[in-house]
Specification:
With about 90 residues, the protein is of the alpha/beta class. It is built from three helices and three strands, in the order αβαβαβ.
Length: about 90
């Protein structure tokens, strides 16, 4: 579908941002990274999101660092979005 869109509308680029939801846990984060690697051609990057009161940002550092340093993916983070999470920042 993306290939068709790019052919029909060459000035428009469509890319995915794969989201790691903190509520899904670290196993799901590793699975999201695997999907990102597999589909990197159509990927803008990988993001960590979800309720910042669930889990701990530090649990996801290994996956996020691998995404950037080993696979050259861009990473977007959503952390310390509420007062009780300030120590994560």
């Amino acid at each position: 579908m993306i290939e068709t869109a790019e052919r029909d509308f060459p000035n428009i680029k469509v890319r995915y941002l794969i989201s790691i939801n903190r509520q899904a846990g670290t196993a799901a984060a590793r699975e999201a990274l695997e999907l990102a690697i597999l589909h990197r051609k159509y990927l803008a990057g990988l993001e960590l999101s979800g309720d910042p009161r669930v889990g701990n940002f530090h649990d996801y550092i290994e996956v996020l660092e691998a995404a950037r340093s080993e696979h050259g993916l861009k990473v977007s983070l959503h952390c310390a979005e509420c007062e009780e999470q300030i120590p994560e920042s």
